[in-house]
Amino acid sequence: MGLGVAVVGVLGTVSAASLSQLAALRGKRLDAEIQRRQRKDERRDATSLAAQEQKQVLYAELNTATRSYRTVVRDHLAELQRAGTIPIPEQLEPTRSTYRDLFSRAQMVLPESALDVAAELNDCFGLGYSALRALHGADSPVTVEELFQWFDGPVSDGVWLQRRVLRADLGVVAHDPEIERRLRQLEKDRVARFGSGSVAVAD
After folding, report:
1. pLDDT tens for residues 94-149?
2. CA 128, 132, 138: angle at the middle one, nearest 5?
3. Are 136 and 158 in contact, with CB atoms under 8 Å apart?
4. pTM for this one?
5. What's the Cα-to-Cα distance from 177 to each of 59, 180, 183, rounded to whole Å?
């Protein structure tokens, strides 16, 4: 009987040790899984943050390029009104090229609502650019004053609208329910100025 008790005691000790080892192993596996998930979450958060930062940089550059493009054309038209005849400024083409490149890149990341605004503004710029080139040709469909009013009014409104939707997409400001109405007005202004069948100049 003493031997039997001893055997049971040994078996109990071994079983307890085995259970302790198994529990420790399971604990290590659980810790490893938790750490793996944490690293995965951290990588996902880092990727998301990097993408957000890249989008913010792109939007800032697009906003700057858009304003610069509008300013170069509007200032040139204002000078044309005063001087009568002056050449197209040298900075127009590189400024326009920078804007178009950034607009093309932004199309890949803009949400649909923001893309609608950016695309409409791009059309407004393109038609305005065609009209500006025509002003320096033999037969222009618009006057200098009319084209200045186009860039000083509707195009400037479009620049503001685009900036607003970009900031909303970044979460800087809340969505403005007036954006849709103002976008429709910009479209109406474009059709009123250039007609529904007008096509912006292509590179």
Report:
1. 999 999 999 999 999 999 999 999 999 999 999 999 999 998 876 777 899 999 99
2. 135
3. no
4. 0.74
5. 21, 7, 11
